[in-house]
Amino acid sequence: MSLQLSIPDTILQAIRLPEQRIEQELLYELAVALYTQDLLSLGKARELAQMDKYEFGQFLAQRGVLRHYSTEELEDDLAYAHRQ
Questions:
Q1: CA 32 to CA 27: how far, in whole Å?
Q2: End-to-end CA distance of the chain, in Å?
Q3: Which Pfam families does its entry note (predicted)?
């Protein structure tokens, strides 16, 4: 499944970015917004933003967005670290 959004020309023209950067910047913003609202996981949000895990983590930090990290994820990471 794929989705295309229709954004009016007046809105696109109002975005103060070079035309070639608008689509990517909108993907970044959408990824951060959906992640912040817990509608996308970190992995899917970074996939939408077309960034690797490190890049997206840095991007979130620049925006002041805290990463969602549950107790269960911490326990999984600790268990993995102890096996190494």
A1: 9
A2: 39
A3: UPF0175
